[in-house]
Amino acid sequence: MNQLSGLNAAQMHAAINGLSSKNFNKFAVRALNGVARKAHTKSGRITSRRMGIKVGAAKNEIKVKKANQSKHESEIVATFRPLSLKRFAPRQTKKGVTAKAWGRRKLYRGAFINKTKMHGHVFRRSTKKSLPVRRLWGPDVPRTLASQSVQKYVLRHARRDMERSVRREYRRIEYEIKTA
Predict the structure, then answer these.
(1) How far apart are CA 38 and CA 35, in angstroms?
(2) Per mean pLDDT, which range of 12-26, 32-46, 98-112, 146-160 is the poorest?
(3) Where are the domains of the chain?
(4) How do residues 1-31 score in pLDDT, each as one tens digit?
(5) pLDDT at 102 over 90
(6) Please, which residues have CB within 8 angstroms of residue 125's CB and are 6 or more apart in sequence?
(7) Which conformational region is residue 61 in: left (phi greater than 0), alpha (psi within -120 to 50 degrees), or beta?
(8) What's the CA gap between 87 and 54, in Å, rounded?
(9) Residue 111, H or E segment
(10) Which residue from 26, 52, 67, 135 puts its CA 20 to 30 A from 82's CA?
(11) How far is CA 58 from CA 1, 77, 149, in A?
């Protein structure tokens, strides 16, 4: 077998077609999952920058559905739940709480931050009495991830990473075949 580095697309296609079905499945799954992992990281980073939250908070809301032997396709899926307002740098003021989402600070009148029992979540009273209170939520990750500019960014990097991943995984399979 010949190395993929330095080959054009047609030569790469011919070399990959020369693999046995078992080795092709291994190759395809590894390459797809590698690209999906990197796309997960990129989408978490760009989403966190856009929304004004920590990267870890954004990545926790984005999941990767991996490719496997029977399904040669991987997906990046965002959970459809809003993030707690505590993730958006809330500040207590006389008028309520301000939080910074998407680069803008917004005032939530009459809200308060409960730092004792509720771990810094932001609440607003439902009635004039002290209870009940309801927790306030900020924006959700899927809306940001669905924007065209974010998708273009992630796809551009995924395409670049796919070529690298294909070359790397082909070399890896080729080495496994030689040493087996």
Answers:
(1) 5
(2) 12-26
(3) 9-80+142-179, 84-139
(4) 334 444 455 666 667 777 888 888 888 899 9
(5) no
(6) 110, 132, 133
(7) alpha
(8) 8
(9) strand 111-114
(10) 67
(11) 42, 12, 17
DSSP, collapsed to helix, strand or coil, labels residue 140 as strand
How is the chain classified by DSSP, letter by letter? ---STT--HHHHHHHHHTS-HHHHHHHHHHHHHHHHHHHHHHHHHHHHHHHTS-HHHHHHTEEEE---SS----EEEE---EEEGGGG--EE-SSEEEEEETTEEEEEETEEEE-SSSTTEEEEESSSSS--EEE-EEEEHHHHHTSHHHHHHHHHHHHHHHHHHHHHHHHHHHHHHHH-
Q: Half-sphere exposure of residue 173, counting CA atoms within 13 Å on the CB side?
A: 26
Half-sphere exposure of 119 (CA within 13 A, CB side): 3
Cβ atoms 136, 83 nearer than 8 A? no
Radius of gyration of the chain from its Cα atoms, rounded to whole angstroms: 23
Cis ω for the linkage preceding 82 (within 30 of 0) = no
Number of neighbouring beta carbons within 10 Å of residue 123: 19
